[in-house]
Design goal:
EC 3.2.1.8; binds ligand G3I; 12 helices; single chain; 8-stranded parallel beta barrel; endo-1,4-beta-xylanase activity; alpha/beta
């Protein structure tokens, strides 16, 4: 039985996972699971600004380099995550910058990191989570937006393209899959961001759809999702699911019930996603339930304290119904 990467390859797609590179170095179990299932890796946090630049102007690429070496040694692809975001900013960065400072600091960071990994990273999440339906003009009022308005987005992509002309450059966003209350605004704003980059001739190659799914929370409308995917593809962009997991925090305690509901939702979303020819692959935000970030935060963990069953492998590395639903979605694509 091939791993998920083998199932994905049958329809010319990739399957990958986020990893914390210290785990790979120290953890033979995780290393075995990654090599069995994945064809692409992305650092869960090792290439983020707060980890790379612990002090102003200095960069410690050790963690990301360790992951890049592992990927190269095992002929796995590597994604970079993420260059410009409102979170994971180093504590020494001021909370407010004027336009000139923001542009200089942001472009210097993008240049330093994208140049360092040029030739090793196939694609970058250049800008992450810029949309906020309640924010100014539908954008999150981040450090960057407050200093530069919407212009920070094309500026970030242009800086990344200068530093690494070969990498595929993605805009990465969440809550684009199911019908959350502000779904239409989120999708429209995402399309507007991508359309502007295209119109201004700024290099952009794809949309990252995070797919942090929440079982039992929002309705899922396959037709609406398919039409959104087609609209992105019509901009001559690729589509990648970049961070899939399925929170089961709202479901009753029964593991069998949780596994079945989680698998059904993921199967539905992936079936729609993989119907789109420009869909290039699926990345999960971890492989086994041992690793999921969903247990880390009070806002995301289950109220009964049970560990979530959000990823394809259980805590012992066994394949769950979610794994089967993913394999079937790839096979049917
Ligand atoms: O900061 C320390 C670092 O100094 C230390 O070396 C390392 C090892 O102990 O731990 C680091 O701690 C935490 C790190 O995760 C590892 O657990 C950080 O404090 C913590 O903020 C970080 O949280 C990550 C979060 O992004 C912020 O970077 C989560 O693991 C990660 O799952 C989450 O991922 C985000 C995506 O980037 C964007 N989309 C949403 C997704 C979930 O929030």
């Amino acid at each position: 039985e091939p791993g998920l990467a083998g199932h994905a390859a049958r329809s010319g797609r990739v399957f990958g996972t986020a990893v914390r590179s210290p785990d790979l170095t120290w953890n033979a179990t995780l290393r075995g699971e990654v090599l069995r299932e994945a064809g692409l890796l992305v650092p869960e946090y090792e290439m983020k600004w707060d980890i790379l630049a612990k002090t102003p102007g200095t960069y410690d690429f050790t963690g990301g380099d360790r992951l890049a070496s592992f990927a190269e040694a095992h002929r796995l692809g590597l994604r970079g995550h993420t260059l410009v975001w409102h979170l994971a900013l180093p504590p020494w960065l001021p909370g407010t910058l004027d336009a000139g400072e923001a542009r200089r600091v942001m472009e210097a960071h993008v240049a330093a990191v994208a140049a360092h990994y040029a030739g090793r990273v196939q694609s970058w999440d250049v800008v992450n989570e810029a949309v906020d339906p309640q924010g100014p003009d539908g954008l999150r009022a981040s450090l960057w937006q407050r200093a530069l308005g919407a212009d920070y987005i094309p500026l970030a992509f242009a800086a990344a393209a200068r530093a690494d002309p070969k990498a595929k450059l993605y805009y990465n966003e969440y809550d684009l899959e199911c019908d959350t209350p502000d779904q239409d605004v989120r999708r429209a704003k995402t399309l507007e961001i991508l359309t502007r980059l295209r119109r201004e001739g700024v290099p952009v190659h794809g949309l990252g759809i995070q797919a942090h799914l929440q079982a039992g929370r929002w309705p899922y409308d396959a037709g609406k999702f398919a039409r959104f995917l087609a609209a992105v593809a019509a901009l001559d962009l690729d589509l990648l699911i970049t961070e899939m997991d399925v929170s089961d925090r709202l479901l009753p305690a029964s593991e069998a019930r949780r596994d079945a509901t989680v698998a059904a939702l993921a199967g539905d979303v992936l079936t729609t996603f993989l119907t789109e020819p420009r869909a290039v692959g699926v990345v999960t935000w971890g492989l086994s339930d041992r690793q999921t970030w969903l247990n880390d935060l009070p806002t995301h963990r289950r109220t009964d304290g049970l560990p979530q069953r959000a990823l394809p492998l259980d805590r012992d590395g066994g394949r769950k119904p979610l794994w089967t639903a993913m394999a079937r979605a790839f096979d049917g694509a």
